[in-house]
Amino acid sequence: MILWGKCPYCNSSGAPGEKKVGGSGYEVQESESRGVFRSSHSPFPFSHHTFRFPVREEKIDIVQRSLTSVPSGYTHFLLSLFTHTSTTTMGSIVQAPALTTQAMPFKVLVVGGSYGGLSAALNLQDLCSGLAPRCGPKPVEGAPVIETPQFNVDITIVDERDGFYHLIGSPLALADEDYAAKSWVRYEDVPAVSQSQNIRVIHGSVKSVDQTSKTATYLPHGLVSSPENTSTLSYDFLVAAAGLRRVWPVVPQSLRRKQFLFEAGDHIRAATTARHGVVVVGGGAVGIEMAAELKLVQPQLKVTLVHSRDKLLSSEPLPDEVKDKSLELLLEAGVGVRMSTRLDKTEEVVDEQGKKAVRVWFTDGESILADQVSLAVSRSVPSTEFLGLKETGVLDEEGYVKIQSSLAFPAETPNWSDHFAIGDLVKWSGIKRCGGAMHMGFFAGNNIHQRMIEIASGKEPVFLKLDEIPPMIGLAVGKKAVSYWPATGVSAGEDVSQAFFGDDLGFTICWNHLGLGNSQKL
């Protein structure tokens, strides 16, 4: 039996009896029962490291590791050992899989468990397990497998909700009770999370982050905010993925699935019994989808969308062709549209049958009778209060996180290389989309893994860097959808809806892309 050892720091390797001395040297020794691999160099301030392992066991087991003067928090490293066993007949060689050992796991804190946060956590877990990242490019069939360094990692997700909520499905969730039940899945029912040995979820909210000490305070859900009720987490890496705060009914305000189902049910039943119809105020993407889904699910309902400008999607940097096609599809879906007028006021009235109704007045002096008014025009606010005041240099004037192309915090901030931000709360080009958030999550997971390699080996990290994102959109309008991509232009139709959203407004597409239904295994 021949024993080989490889050093993760200098990549030196050798067989028993070999020795190399110098600034980056190794010595491999063998005794009757134990082999020793010793490497002496200084990528970190310790004098040497020694790895001992059995030589007569078929399954390699590291039984002792000796490190001297290793700084706290940096005892993360990789050891690969290979056993070559020769047969007496064919002389074939059997290679055992590479093993990983690590004194302490890297601790990663992810603030927010929506598209971006889950993507960062799960892709990082994949990489640390030696797997291809689930949201990355798919390996070419037959191509050699590129092994990645493996690390022990503890990932903590702190989320205000008790489960994964399919945010882009809100327009349908607030129109169909069956879909509402599907759109919110508690974390304990998400296999990729609940079955993971590396990920835990805390139902609560992060209140503050100290970049210098790498600590965060959080308040568990249901407790009154006070110093005695908050707890502290320490971390090696942080991912800010808390998204935007949006008001009702743009998104549900519930933080528990059970509460959400009551909230959605009340809203749906109120719309179902609306004899005079529903008015949706706001012609952005949310308003368009909200009006169209309501009309699709309840075709007997009178639905009117009101927009203050002469074009829908007026705040988005999109060609007029996209905006005109959106209006065309909305009218085709049976939604009434009033353009270039604003909501002035509403007043409760009694209709001809002596029942309560709402008189909706517009700035052009006209009015209509309705039973429900849904506002889809409120300005969303980044959920970044926990990162401190704008004076820290992390946030811009509107509260968005300023990031580098690696998704890391600004370089002038403390420990910036270990702090990342993704998704809707970052200041970056492009329209806010769930696809963009998942893409950023994959990049963040990769770049944190690269930082782990740098810490473990001194090797310069190879970061994935985010390009400027051009304006693009996929918008569901009833049974059809309109899409725009600069390279291909505008497309619309039922086939576009199927490609972008499937049969459930993108729930299955997102669920599968994130691999939430199963946990990848080695």
From TrEMBL:
Any single Pfam family the record assigns to this protein: Pyr_redox_2
Superkingdom, natural source: Eukaryota
Domain FAD/NAD(P)-binding: 106-441
Xref: PANTHER family: APOPTOSIS-INDUCING FACTOR 1 (PTHR43735), NUCLEOTIDE-DISULPHIDE OXIDOREDUCTASE AMID-LIKE, PUTATIVE (AFU_ORTHOLOGUE AFUA_1G17180)-RELATED (PTHR43735:SF24)
Classification via SUPFAM superfamilies: FAD/NAD(P)-binding domain (SSF51905)
Name assigned to this protein: FAD/NAD(P)-binding domain-containing protein
Gene3D superfamilies on file: 3.50.50.100, FAD/NAD(P)-binding domain
Cited InterPro entries: FAD/NAD-bd_sf, FAD/NAD-binding_dom
Entry's transmembrane regions: none
